[in-house]
Amino acid sequence: MKLVRKELSEDCWELILNRLAIDDFNYLQSPSLVCKLFLSITDRLRLKLGVSNRLFYSDNCEGLFRALQRFTNLKEFELRVPFFGDKADVNYPIRRITSPLLDLQSIYLTCLLLKTFLKLGSTMKNLKILRCCLLECLRNHHLVAIADALPWLEELDIHFSCYYWSTEWDSNSRSAKYLITDAGIEVMSRKLRGLRKIDITGQVGCSDRSLIALSSNCVLLNEIRCGLCKVTEHGICFVLRHSRNLICFKVGSCYSSPDNSFTFENSMIYATSLRDLALDPHGNYDQLICSIATAGIQLEKIVLYDDSGLSLHGLSTFLCACPSLTHLMLGSIKILTDNYMRDLCRYLPNLVSITIDGCSNLTTATFFILAKECPVLSEIEMPHINLHVEDDFDMDLERNYRIRSLDLSCARVNNKFLKKVGVVCPNLQTLDVSGLYRLTEGIEDILKCCSQMKHLTVDRTREIVILLEQFKTRCIKIEHHLNLEERI
Question: Gene3D superfamilies from the xrefs (predicted)?
C-alpha cells in the first residue's frame, strides 16, 4: 500500500514559527532560508530587526542588506551600541533603513548624524517612535533637527546614561553647549505638538523650564520621564495641573520649591488620569502620598524609594486609599518589618508585581507572607534579601500557583530556603538566582519542583554546568549573568 505523505498547512507552520518568535525575533533568521513558504511566513511574523556590531564593517554590510530584503514588513529597527573600528561604515545602516521599501514605525539609534534625520523625515512618514538613547554627542541643535524633520513624532526617547555626565556640569556655564538644555526642549516642544511620550532622564541641563514647556505646548502628553534632571516641586506641580492626559510620570528625586502656591496638596487633585508614579520628594513622602489618597487618584504603579519623611501611618493610609495598585516598588524603606508587611498585604488585593530592594529590616519571611496573603501576585523581585538567623520556616506555608517570575539575585539565603521556594511556587517560569552559585543543591530543588521553568539566570560555574546537564531536555533558556567557571 502506497503511503501518502501529507504536508502541514501554512497555518500550522505559522503557529510553529510564531512560537520561535515569542522570545526573540532573531530565531526566525534561519527558518527564513529553508524555503519560499517559510520565507513568506517569517516575513509576516518578523516585525523587528536588531543590528549587531559586526554589520557595521565593510565585509559584513551585505548581511544587513540581505536581511532587509528578506523581511519587508519590518516595523521596528534597532541599532544598538556600535563599537566602531577603522573599517566601520556607520552610515550604511541608515542608508538602508531609509529605503522606500520599508515602512518603519519605530527606530532605536545609538549613532548620530544630522543627515540621518533629514533622510528619515523624507521617507518615513509613518515613523512615530524615535529613540536616540545614551548618546554622548546629543546637543540642542540635534534636538531641533529631529523636530524639524519628524514633526509627526509621538514618542521621543533621549535619555542619557548618568555614566557619561559629570555633576560639575552646569546649564549656566560654558559646558551647557555640550548638553541638552531648557532652550532646546522649549524649541522642540513647540514643533512636536503631537508628542505623547518623552524621556529626558539624565539630561542634567533640563530644569523646571523644560517641564513647563512640555506641559504647555504638548497637550497630548501621557508619559514624562525626567529622572536626574534639575526639577523642583514647582515644575512637577505645574505638570500635574496642566497635563490632564498624564498617565505615567517618572521623576525620581526632586528639590523643594520656595513657591507655596504650587504644592502637592493643591495640585494632585488635577492629575485624575495619573496611574504610574515614581517621585522622591526629599523628606516629604507623607505629604505626597497623603495628597494622592485625598485626591482619590487610582494609582496602579508607584515607586517608593527612601523612607525620608515617610511614616508607617502615612504608608498605610495611602495603600488603603489605593486598592487599585498592581505594581509596587519599595526601595530602602528601613522602617518596614516582616510583621508590618503582613499588615500591609490586606491593602494589596490586586497586587500583581512587587519589588523589594534595600529594605534592611525585611527578611525572607516576607517572601512567604506575600505568597500567602496576595491572591493575584505573579512577579516578585527580592534581590539582596536577607535570611534572618532565627528563620526556621515553621510558619504555615501555602502553595501559590500564580507566581510566575522570581528574582533572588545576590540574596543572602540558604539551600533550605530555596527548596521551600520551589514547593511554594510550583508554576515558576522565570527565575534569577545569579550570585547564588554556591547553592547548587537549592537551585536543583527549585528546578525539580518547577516543571514549567522557561528562563533561568545564573552565574556560570563548573558545578552549575554539571547541574544543568540533567535538565537539558527541559528547553530552559539559560542566561549566565557572570562566568565564574575559571575563577572558582
Answer: Ribonuclease Inhibitor
**Radius of gyration of the chain, Cα coordinates, nearest whole angstrom:** 26
**Ranges of each domain in the chain:** 232-325, 354-488
Question: Could you give phi then psi for residue 326, rounded to 5 degrees?
Answer: -115, -25
CA 225/CA 2 separation, integer angstroms: 67
User: What pLDDT, on the 0 to 100 scale, is given for residue 132?
Assistant: 87
pLDDT value at position 52? 63
- Tell me if 364 sits within 8 A of 417, measured CB to CB: yes
Q: For residue 118, is pLDDT > 70?
A: yes
The three-point CA angle 433-439-443 to 5° equals 55
Superfamily of domain 354-488: Ribonuclease Inhibitor (3.80.10.10)
Which residues contact residue 486 at a Cβ distance below 8 angstroms, ignoring those fewer than 6 apart? Answer: none
Q: Which of 111, 129, 132 is nearest to 180 (CA)?
A: 132
Q: What tens digit of pLDDT does each residue of 143-158 get?
A: 999 999 999 999 999 9
Residue 160 three-state SS: coil
pTM here? 0.88
Reported as type and span, the H/E element at residue 94 is: helix 92-97
For CA atoms 135, 141, 144, 150, the dihedral sign is negative
Question: Which amino acid appears at position 206 of this protein?
Answer: C
Among residues 406, 450, 448, 411, which one has the least CA distance to residue 430? 406
Give the integer Cα–Cα distance in Å for 277 and 303.
7
Q: Is 280 exposed, middle or buried (0-12, 13-18, 19+ CB in 10 A)?
A: buried
Answer for the pair 204, 229: CB distance below 8 angstroms, yes or no. yes
Which residues are within 8 A (CB) of 40 and not within 5 positions of it... i.e. 6 or more apart? none
